[in-house]
Structure formats: C-alpha cells, structure tokens
Amino acid sequence: MYKVLIVDDEPLIREGLRSIIEWNEHGFEVTDTATDAYDALQKAPLLNPDLIIVDIRMPGMDGLTLMKTIQGQSSASPHFLILSGYADFDYARQALQLKADGYMLKPIDEDELIEQLGKIKKLMEEERSAKAAEWTRERIAQIVTAEEEADIPEGAAREAGMDWPAFDAVLIKLQSLSDIDSSVPRESRTS
C-alpha cells in the first residue's frame, strides 16, 4: 500500500479528496492531510509518504515551493500530484520542470483521479522493482561478509530469496597451489 499525504488549505477539498474514491482498492492509503505547506513540511518526514497531492496555490508557501523544499531535503523524494483551481500554463510548466507526476484541475473528477493514480502507481512499482533488482544474493552476501558496507533495505533479503530464520556460512578463500606451498612451513611438508 502506498502512503498518501493530501495538502490543501480548503477543508472541503481535503476531505473531499479523502472520500472521493476507495483508496485501498487502488493500492493507496491516505495517511493524513495537511492544512498548508508548513503543516506538510512538519508531517512529511514523520509520515514518509510515497505520494503527496498538493494544491498549487495556498497562503504562505505555494505547492511548487513545497515540492522544491521536500525534493531538496531528501534523495528519496515522494511523487507529487499537483492540484490547481486555475488553468494557468505557467503553473503547469513549473510543475513539469519539478518533475510532478500529474497536474489536475479542480474540481477533481473521480475517474481522472483514478487514472492519475494508476499511472503513478505503475511508475512507483517500476521504481520499486528496479531498486529490488539492485539487491541480489551476491550483493547481500558481500555486505554480510563485510566486503561492502551498506544498509540492506527492509525486504531486500526476502526479494533475493534469503530471508531464512537462520543460516550457516562457510567462507572459502581461493588459493593457488604455489600459495599453499609457500604458506606451509618446510618441516611440516611430507615428501
């Protein structure tokens, strides 16, 4: 289930978005709402949303500035779906430059929202698959044997088929015969 944070200064829009569709049926869960960009900046690090649906025009900080700020705070930025009450080309252009995943005009159409969520979900699944593919058995084994230092993401061992309750490890160091001969003391060798 992908986590969603809805950010809009209008209470009717926030609650309307929350109830317009059955989010769970589409693979999403609305974890919270935020009343403005500042509220969202407080909640986003705690909720770690996969998708932020944000109004473009809000008092104080607008949705585009919120998007830039969140993108600048983390390398693993959430996806963004921009909402606007205005068919303003400049807003749409700026949203695209910031790599927004969608731009919808208010009032929100239920079918259009479902279509946008489908596209975003597909994109997130592709990203998740690509990231999981990075964590092969060999890479996890390298980390376990301290050949490489990194945090193994939650679920990576399961994806690589290595989520055993316990295991034994055998470490083998390959050596040539000359390496072996030179490491054994002369008096221990048999003729």
UniProtKB/TrEMBL annotation:
Chain positions with 4-aspartylphosphate modification: 55
Domain of life: Bacteria
Protein name: Response regulator
Record keywords, A-Z: Cytoplasm, DNA-binding, Phosphoprotein
Pfam families, per database record: Response_reg (PF00072)
Biological process annotations from GO: phosphorelay signal transduction system
Example GO molecular function: DNA binding
Naturally occurring in which organism (per UniProt): Cohnella faecalis
InterPro entries attached to this UniProt entry: CheY-like_superfamily, HptR, Sig_transdc_resp-reg_receiver
Domain Response regulatory span(s) in chain numbering: 3-121
Transmembrane feature ranges: none
